[in-house]
Amino acid sequence: MIRLSEVGKTYPDGTVAVQELDLEVGRGEMVCLVGPSGCGKSTTLKMINRLIEPTTGRIFLDGADVTDADPVQLRRGIGYVIQQIGLFPHQRVVTNVMTVPLLYGESKATARQRALELLETVGLDPATFADRYPHQLSGGQRQRVGVARALAANPPVLLMDEPFGAVDPVVRTKLQDEFLRVQRELGKTVVLVTHDIDEAVRMGDRVAVFAAGGRLAQYATPEELLARPADDFVADFVGSTRGLRRLSVTPIRLEHLEPLDGVNAGQLGAAIDLDSTLEEALATMLRDDKPMIGVKKGAAFVGVLTPNGVHSALRASLR
Ligand SMILES: Nc1ncnc2c1ncn2[C@@H]1O[C@H](COP(=O)(O)OP(=O)(O)OP(=O)(O)O)[C@@H](O)[C@H]1O
C-alpha cells in the first residue's frame, strides 16, 4: 500500500534527517515509527503526504509514485492527525469535523450527519459535544475531534504524528484503545509516529525503530522486536524492562493452560478471555491476589493459567 524506496531527506542547511530508507506498509496495517527525538520520524511521515519533498528515492502509494500526484489531491486522500490538532477555534466541534466532507462537495446535511456519526465513533456523545467550541473541551477530547476530522474524508490512509501525545497516561491509554477499535472496524492503513515505545508495541502491527539520521534500525512485529532486538541500539531503546513489555504483546494460548479439574474455586481470580494478553492475565492475578486465573473462550472455561504458564508462554513466543 505504502512503499518507501531508498528515501532520503537532507534539509537545505545540510541536516541529514533521513537516509536511504526502505519501508513497506501493507494495506490495513498499522505501523508505528518510533525512536529518539530528532531521528527523522516526522520528516518521514510528512514525505508520505508531500508536506516535505524527499531529496532522493521514491515513495509509492498503491503502486503510484506520490511525486507524480498533485499534492493537494494527494493530501485529500490521506488523513493527517497531529498533536497540536489545529482545530478551528471559532467553529463548533461538529463544524470542525464537517470541514473536509464539505470541501469534497458533500451537501451540508450529509456532512453534518457523517460528522455526528464520527463523533460517536471516537467516543464523544454528539448531544453533549457537537455544539461546543474547542476551548470547551479537555485535551483528550480535542484529540478525539482531531481523529474524527481526519476520518471524515474516509481516507484509506491515515498519518498520525504523536496523536495521543499531550494527555495524561490514563486518557492516553483510553484513546489508544478507542483508536485500535476504530482501526479494526474501519481497516485503515495507518502510519503513526511516537517517541513512546510502549505506545508503539501496543498499537503497531509492526514497529519501525529509527536511529539518528533516519536510519532504520529494526522493522519487526512487537513480539519480535522485544524478544530479539537487532542490535545494542534497539536493545537499549526498548529498555531493560522489555521482558515486562513482552507480557503486553504475548497472547495466552491454549497449550499453556492447565486443566480446571481439581482446582479449588477459592484459588481462582476473575476469569479472563483467551484473547487477553499475558499482561492482562498477570494483572488480574495480582489484583485478585490469587495464584491462578480461569480462562474462558466465549462462555466456556478452557483452563487455568498460573505464573508458570505465563513463563512458558513467554519462552514459547521466543521460538
Ligand atoms: N526544516 C528543517 N531544516 C533543517 N533541519 C530540520 C528541519 N526540520 C527538521 N530538521 C532536522 O531534521 C532532523 C529530523 O527531524 P524530525 O522532526 O523528522 O525528527 P523526529 O524524529 O520527528 O523528532 P521528534 O521526536 O523530536 O519530533 C532533526 O535533526 C531536525 O532538527
Q: Any idea what the shape is?
A: globular
Q: Identify the CATH homologous superfamily of the largest domain.
A: P-loop containing nucleotide triphosphate hydrolases
SSE ordering: EEEHEEHEHHHHEHEHEEHHHEHEEH
Bound molecules: adenosine-5'-triphosphate
Order of strands across the main sheet:
6-7-8-3-9-10
Distance between the termini: 30 Å
What would you report as the Rg, rounded to the nearest angstrom?
22 Å
Stated plainly, the CATH topology of the largest domain is called: Rossmann fold
Largest sheet: 6 strands, mixed
Q: How large a portion of the residues is in β-strands, by DSSP E?
A: 15-25%
The CATH class of the largest domain, by name, is Alpha Beta
Point out poorly predicted stretches.
none
Describe, in plain words, how this protein is organized in 3D.
The protein is of the alpha/beta class and 319 residues long. It has two domains: 245 residues, Rossmann fold; 68 residues, CBS domain Like (Alpha-Beta Complex). It is 39% helix and 24% strand. The chain has 13 helices and 13 strands. A six-stranded mixed beta sheet has the order 6-7-8-3-9-10, with helices on both faces. A four-stranded antiparallel beta sheet has the order 2-1-4-5, with helices on one face. Helix 3 packs across helix 4. The chain is globular, with a radius of gyration of 22 Å. The mean pLDDT is 88. Bound molecules: adenosine-5'-triphosphate.
